[in-house]
Amino acid sequence: MTQSHLNETAEADLGYGQLFGILVRQRYWFSGIFIAVLCATAAITLKTKPTYRSTMQLLVEPNYPQKQTLERTLESSQTGDDDYATQLALMRSSQFTEEVAARLRTDYPDLEGADIEQNLGLSRVEAGGEETQIFAAVYTDGNPVKTQKILETLQQVYQEYNLEQEKLRLTQGLAFIDEQSETARDRLIQLEDDLEAFRANENFIDPQQQANSVAEALDRIEGERRTLRAQYEETQARYGALQGQLTRSPKEGLIASRLSQSSRYQALLDELQKTELTLAQERLRLTNNHPDVEALQEQRQRQLTLLAQEQQRVLGLNSAPPIKSGESLRQTGQLGKTDQDLVDRVLEVQAELRGLQARDRALGSIEEELRAELDRFPKAIAKYNRLQPEVEIQRNTITQLLETRQALSQELARGGFNWQVVEPPQE
Q1: Are the C-beta atoms of 284 and 310 separated by less than 8 Å?
Q2: Which residue intervals of 246-290 are DSSP H helices?
């Protein structure tokens, strides 16, 4: 085993020695190759123009931070990345590079937007493995002054564009608000005209309130009529009881009451009674053909005629009963105190009954009118409930639009993205 190890060591030493010998023998060849490569590299380096880089950093952040809930955090974050990708694509667009080239055309006549676009690099700056809101702009060119001028001009173009966008958002927002306000005003005028016409045609201000008022009035009328019916039944019972106490019919009692209150009728009735008494006495001693008896009979007939005339005057032609005899006239025209009191009470109850009936008829007419009016309300209420909320909605809309317009300048100025220079162009 020791002999084998010695042989291997000898072979290794022989290999290194042979390699060194080869290098020594070929040293001139290797030196030539090395010198040739070195010369070629130097020549290329001398012929290649130097390149310079200018860098700039911009802070691109939304003026309104996105409000995220726990449920929408992932979705909102994705939306934010998409927005920044859009901003990055926008900043790379030719509208900016062409504008920069146009502004520097005097100093660099051959400069084109495509050249700037080709040498411009834009990317988001990373910190801690995450992309930030800072964009880095790097421009590469063989002229150090040119690279810095291009980035300085690009900075101006970016900031001017950002300011123009803010003004554009403000102008468009105000125009939109004005358009919506005008539309809302026109709609409000139309709705108010419709509501006014509805109130004029239906004679309603608020049909729901008026319907409630009519319903309450109808309930009161129905309650009053129930009370009246109860009073009428009670009064009718009293009337029947009084009629049972009278020895005459109510009509006869009324006639007797009125005649007994006539002083002339009572005076004529007294004279008639005296004449009849004298006539009865004369008939006891004289015949009917005797001149004195005939004279008394004629006197009695004249008195009956006068009584009949007075009765018609007091009672009226249609109410006067037929005259049969003086006894009937006395019965008709005279009442005792008790009968007179009963008649007076009957007359009072009759008047009360007539009053209750008249009141009930009047309330019945009012009830019919209220029911007819109440039947009009359902359709009117439905139409009013369509018009009135729309009017209120349009009024609230106009108020909100006016309030929004007052704050719109500040709000829209804060809209979109704000491009701020974090690090100005530098070599």
Answers
A1: no
A2: 250-260, 263-285
Whether residue 133 contacts residue 413, with contact meaning beta carbons closer than 8 Å, is answered with: no
**For residue 258, what are its two tokens?**
């009125």
Write out pLDDT tens, residues 327-339. 555 555 455 555 5
DSSP-derived 3-state class of residue 12: helix
Phi, psi of 283 (to 5 degrees): -70, -20
Q: Is residue 91 exposed (0-12), middle (13-18) or buried (19+ Cβ within 10 Å)?
A: buried
Rg (CA), the chain: 64
E strand segments, 19-85: 52-62
- Residue 360 near residue 228, CB atoms below 8 Å: yes
Determine the Cα angle at 243 with ends 239 and 245, to 5°. Answer: 120
pTM of the model: 0.44
At 406, list the tokens.
């007052």
Tell which residue, 210, 56, 207, has the closest CA to residue 125.
56
pLDDT tens by residue, 145-174: 888 888 889 888 888 888 888 778 778 878
Give the span between the Cα atoms of 268 and 392, in whole angstroms. Answer: 85
Look at the block and give the residue holding tokens 């319907």: 211
For residue 344, give the amino acid letter. D
Contact 165, 411 (CB under 8 A): no
User: Apex CA 309: angle with CA 249 and CA 288, to 5°?
Assistant: 95
User: 311 is written with which tokens?
Assistant: 């009765």
| Domain ranges, ordered by start, for the chain | 210-364
Where b means 16+ CB within 10 Å and e means fewer, 263-276 reads eebeebbeebeebb
**Whole-angstrom Cα distance, residue 207 to residue 197?**
14
What gap in Å lies between CA 280 and CA 218, rounded to an integer? 70
